[in-house]
Amino acid sequence: MEQVILASNIKCSGCAKTIQEGLTTLAGVQQITVDVPEGKVTVTGDNLQRSALTQKLAELGYPEKTATSGLVNIMQKAKGLFAGK
Fold it and tell me: HMA domain: from which residue to which, for each copy (predicted)?
């Protein structure tokens, strides 16, 4: 089984190493590949629980990118622009 997760805040090989070390502690994980430029984490293993993977990534500081997360960021920035007026 393979799970592919797009995660935020992946900037360097140190981030990739942190992710690999953190996710290997989860049950069923056999292999982890991190594509730093794409922010893509690919996990291969048996009986992988996507929710456990995304929760662990968030705990490590690399939350899953979602369609709504970008919208929330835009709304927060817009509120900040109008707060001073």
Answer: 1-65
